[in-house]
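Researcher: Here's a chain I'd like modeled. Treat it as a single chain, no partners, no ligands.
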Amino acid sequence: MPTMAAEWVGTAGIAPMTVLMVVILFYIVMGCIMDSLSMILLTVPVFFPAFMAMDFGMDPTHQALWFGIITLIVVELGMITPPVGLNLFMISAMAPDIPTRKIFRGAVPFLLVECLRIAIIVAFPVLTFWLVDIVTG
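Model: Modeled as a single isolated chain. Structure tokens:
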């Protein structure tokens, strides 16, 4: 199935950024109802070959790392996304005196900053590897 998905995405003529946005939205929605490890184990074998079949204008190593970084950030973003963000319910269980609504409201600034960070990483992938490229020469 991963190979078929990669071939289909590669030949469908869909813009790579469109596919990336769909994957990001999928991970955010799935993060509301699944834990991160399960989500990664179920989806990466399907999404990774499809992602690597697209041309984002970078070498394959950077593209694979970029996918991994985006996936990790978005999965964790999904875990704090209301209405069913699992991490928010864990916080609620640890602080039973604080209403769940207040915990959800407190997560909103973090959601906004994470969305901004994802937008920056997607718009400027070179920033993702800037420090690594400096260190490795």
